[in-house]
Amino acid sequence: MKTALRLTLLALALAAAGTVSAKDTDLLNVSYDPTREFYAEVNQVFAAQWKQQTGETLNIRASHGGSGKQARAVVDGLEADVVTLALAGDIDTIANAKQLPANWQSRLPHQSAPYTSTIVFLVRKGNPKGIKDWDDLIKPGVAVITPNPKTSGGARWNYLAAWAYASTKFRDGDKVVDFLTSLFKNVPVLDTGARGSTTTFVDRKIGDVLIAWENEALLTLEQSNTRGQFEVVIPSLSIKAEPPVAWVDKNVDKHGTRKQAEAYLRFLYTPEGQRLAAKHGYRPAEPDKVPAAELAKFPEVKQVTIDGAFGGWKKAQAAHFSDGGFFDKIYLPK
Amino acid sequence: MQTRVRPALNARTATVSLWSALACALALPAHAQSNELTVEQLAQRLRAIEQRLGGGDAVANASADSGNLSDLDQRLRVIERKLELQAEENAARVASTPAVSLSASKGLSVKSPPPGDVELKFKALVQADGRFFIGDELLPQNDTFLFRRIMPTIEGTWGPLIGFRLTPEFAGDSATIADAYFDLKFDPRATVRIGKFKSPVGLERLQSSGSTGLIELGLASELTPNRDLGVQLQGELAGATVSYALGVFNGAVDGRDSPTVNPDNEFELAGRVFVEPWKNASNALSGLGFGVAASSGDRRGNGNNFLPRYRTPGQTQFFNYRSAVLADGAQTRWSPQAFYYRNGLSLLGEYVSSSQDVRVGAFADELEHTAWQLTAGYVLTGEDAGYKGVARPNQPFTLGAAGWGAFELVARYGRLEIDDDAFPRYADRNAVAAAARSWGLGLNWYLTGNLKLVANYTQTQFDGGAAAGRDREDEKAFFTRAQLAF
To answer: What end-to-end distance do the CA atoms of chain B give, in Å?
Structure first.
């Protein structure tokens, strides 16, 4: 009798284990605007790889929007397992809400930035306004398209790249502010996210120049419906944008997805992950893992870093984008 | 130099399209779409729209050479894009903004953004009475104005599972809690209610206090418990034609609320099944409902928390036990009940039996008190009557206009009889009555859906209750009420 009972219990345990292993797992990646196509492919490749390795079916969903808005959504309760945002300051916002530890950036290589990008200009074919550098963006009659730095991580990189250029040129705070003020006076539409700005420039045919992520610009050049209609202009100075990634401890513990979330992000550092990043216009953090031919589309750009030019994201955020910061003075003149 | 636009002479399709778009965007009246309109005039109007949309500086700066069609095209595109962004922003705001509504019929409510499963409602019931007794020489009663009820209510839902209600009562000398419960709404067929709420026995007692036919409840309701503390499973079955409730409670004496804690460590089961077979039909029987309710439990102790005192519809006490009597065992109630509503006609009737094991010294008995009542009403002005009252007059009362609101006549008759075995050991026939018979007439004036003025006359006759075996003098009560409810 005891043997029968043990066998029954064993069978029930095995059945339960089988049920658990066969269960689908959901993973939510809350990301920023221009990563749609990149993560669509990453999710597909990683889920297949994970299924092969573990037998588990992963349903990876992605949410895209302005990086700042996305961070606030997570703070307000959007249960992201991983966040792949445009800048570390946005993930710091989530860390400040105690959803992941303050040292999150040290948990993955390269300060948790598996790929980088930079800021370039996208102009219409033939460059009718003759835009070559930042100075051309403040000329009267030049309509500049860039999103709102209050809501878009990409816009903050755009703004800081312009600031870095002006600082190098003028070395005078007032003149730098004047430069940025002139630039934003030339912005007729302030979208909330980088993808919205691309839509404004490319689809709605508004403006003369789009300040854009390099990957977003490359994507526009390569898309069949826009091929041949635009050119990329590399400014004399830009900024090294390091979009970071992190798993959100509070949510992965709640969902029981810590293992999957961490593996998903570590996948980005593998040769396959790095290759996909390059394919979608992101500069791989470990370029030696990617065939040289894949890197040919990334020209040399003189870049400053957020740490070197601004003392890190926290300082940049406080000085420029907090309420009453430089951006408020530049865009909302009293 | 002023540029004149002559579409008829301009063959370029793009330009024609642009003119059409401009005309639409600027909502030009038909007569303005003439050949006399100039680019400068259009640019001026466009500038006015840009100023209204804001960001005029950026637009103007980017459009320094305003005056040619490609520039106007850009500016129009900017406006269109800004409107798109505004629409997106508004949609996002709507999706994340709670909906606040305030209406006379439903009070104040705040609903969470979609899916809107968190909702708070603020309601209130205020009843101010004027009460006068006629011919009360032998047993004088206080003529008085009083607040009968001041009951604000906060109720709502907190997610799809949880509903709640909190109703304090401020009309007494000190604030109390009338209703305080939350519902676990597993299914319309099965909801668990936990807290303090009306026990499911009396039909008239289960009516909202603002909807009863007359100002005070009838004699049969004196035998049913009021609010009690406990847990109740309730629900509706068969297309809501069958409703049921079954709960376990601390136990309340007849006609009263239960104390805040269970004084005798005994519990009471109470339940009710009510059927409205033709509720979903449209025929003469669709307003018919009938059912049965019952409660059973032990009660052990002495005093007002254990033994009932019965009141007339004028709220004067006419029966109580001797002070030495103990509740000492089972209390059982049962009540067949029914209502019928058809257009303006309302009928509501119930019979209640309440029995209680009592003891004095070595003597013990089971005493059964019984009561019944029938209430009939008719809305003179054509509105439909219902269990929830006349909700909304067809023509609300309006100063200086034709509307007078709704008028309803109500009549009620009821009897309550004390078990003969209660006398003389458990109750003193010279001090309390052995039976009461009461009739009442009422006029309800619904000025609006929220304001109701009421006048009632009730007369109650007694068996016994006075010295030397005489009958207590009749009670003649004229009550008035002003009621505000939303």
So the answer is: 67
How many angstroms away from the CA of A177 is the closest CA of chain B? 16
Q: What is the pTM of this model?
A: 0.66
Q: Which of A148, A151, A186, A189 to mutate to test the interface with B (most CBs of B within 10 A)?
A: A189
Banded pLDDT at B400 (limits 50, 70, 90):
confident
Does A233 reach chain B within 8 Å, measured CB to CB?
no
A192 shares contact with chain B (CB less than 8 Å): yes
User: Are B58 and A187 within 8 A, CB to CB?
Assistant: yes
- Higher pLDDT: A124 or A17? It is A124
Burial (CB count <10 Å: 0-12, 13-18, 19+), residue B336: middle
Cβ neighbours around A252 below 10 Å, total: 21
* Predicted pLDDT at A332: 67
Q: Which residues of A touch B63 (CB under 8 A)?
A: 141, 143
Q: Please state, for a pLDDT cut of 90, what percent of chain B lies above it.
A: 74
pLDDT at B334: 98
Q: Looking at the complex, does the CB of residue A70 fall below 8 Å from at least one CB of chain B?
A: no
Q: In A264-290, which positions are buried (b, 16+ CB within 10 angstroms) versus exposed (e)?
A: bbebbbeebbbbbbbbbbbbbbbeebb
| Rounded distance between C-alpha atoms, residue B188 and residue B81, angstroms | 47
Distance CA A283, CA A217 (A): 13
Identify whether the C-beta of residue B77 lies closer than 8 Å to the C-beta of residue B69.
Answer: no
Q: Judge whether residue A170 has pLDDT over 60.
A: yes
Q: Mark yes or no for CB contact A196/B61 under 8 Å.
A: no
Contact (CB<8Å) B85/A189: yes
* Residue listed under structure tokens 């004149």: B4
Residues in A closer than 8 angstroms to B61, CB to CB, are: 140-141, 185-186
Would you call A128 an interface residue with chain B, using a CB distance cutoff of 8 Å? no
* Whether the predicted interface score ipTM is above 0.85: no
Give the pLDDT score at B47: 80
CA distances for A295 relative to A40, A231, A270, A284, angstroms: 21, 19, 16, 9
Q: What is the DSSP string of B413-438?
A: EEEEE--GGGTTTTS-TTTSEEEEEE
Task: For A58-124, give the DSSP string.
Answer: EEEEEE-S-HHHHHHHHHTT---SEEE-S-HHHHHHHHHTTSS-TTGGGSSHHHH-SEEEEEEEEEE
Between chains, do A142 and B78 touch, taking CB under 8 Å as contact? no
Inter-residue contact B231 to B184 (CB < 8 Å):
no
Q: What ranges in B156-291 are assigned the alpha helix state H?
A: 203-206
Per the CB < 8 Å rule, is A191 touching B63? no
Q: Which two tokens stand for residue A58?
A: 């992963």
Chain A contact set for B74 (CB, 8 A): 143, 188, 206
> Of A172-186, B42-56, B114-128, which gets the smallest average pLDDT?
B42-56
> Please, are residues B180 and B166 in contact by the beta-carbon 8 Å criterion?
yes
CB contact set of A23 (below 8 Å; sequence gap of 6+): A56
Note the pLDDT of residue A15: 42
SS3 per-residue string spanning A182-241: HHHHCCCCCCCCHHHHHHHHHHCCCCCEEEEEHHHHHHHHHCCCCCCCEEEECCCCEEEE
* Structure confidence by residue, pLDDT tens digits, B328-364: 999 999 999 999 999 999 999 999 999 999 999 999 9
Confidence of residue B105 (pLDDT cuts 50, 70, 90): confident
Residues of A in contact with B88 (CB under 8 A): 192
Q: How far apart are the C-alpha atoms of B191 and B197, rounded to whole Å?
A: 14
Whole-number average pLDDT of chain B: 89
How far B55 CA lies from chain A's nearest CA (Å)? 7
Cα–Cα nearest to B262, from B233, B230, B294, B231: B230
pLDDT at B8 over 60: no
* Nearest-by-CA chain B residue for A199: B81
Closest residue of chain A to B86, computed from CA coordinates:
A191
